[in-house]
Amino acid sequence: MQIQIHSDDFTLTDGLREHIVRRLAYSLNHGRNVISRVVVRLADVNGPRSGVDKCCGIEIRMARASPIAIDDTQADLYVAIDRAAERAGRTLDRRISWRAKSAVRRSDKFEPMTEESST
User: Fold this and answer.
1) For the domain bounded by 2-109, which CATH number is listed?
2) What are the boundaries of each domain within the chain?
3) Which position among 82, 83, 86, 98 has the lowest Cβ density within 10 Å, counted as fewest Cβ atoms?
4) What would the pLDDT profile of 70-117 be if each residue is shown by its tens digit?
């Protein structure tokens, strides 16, 4: 799984980078075989002014599927990262289970008839 991290208006520290990688590895571990790339965008929306303005955006790219995009804004950037990673993991869970159920429905629909089932 390839992870790209972009930060706007502030310096990305090694500790912050390690935190992002660790949280994504934990949250997205179950889907690592379907994920091709994860893009994380960090921004300080209000700049030097105070307030709830640290934004973390996570985009998950998968093969043969539309991307998953999650955004979260908090006063603390680490909290925004944690919440966005957790939501991304839950969304990925739903997408994977939906794709698996969809594949089962498609295979049931086109099951060939046998002599036992035609009687």
Assistant:
1) 3.30.160.100
2) 2-109
3) 98
4) 999 998 999 999 999 999 999 999 988 876 666 555 555 555 556 655
Q: Give the dihedral sign, CA 14/56/39/41.
A: negative
Q: What tokens appear for 73 in the block? A: 């804004």
Residue-wise pLDDT tens digits, 27-39: 998 888 889 999 9
CA distances in angstroms from 17 to 30, 49, 81, 105, listed in the order given: 21, 24, 11, 41
Distance CA 71, CA 59 (A): 9
CA separation for the pair 7, 12 (Å, rounded): 6
The tokens for 101 are 């159920």
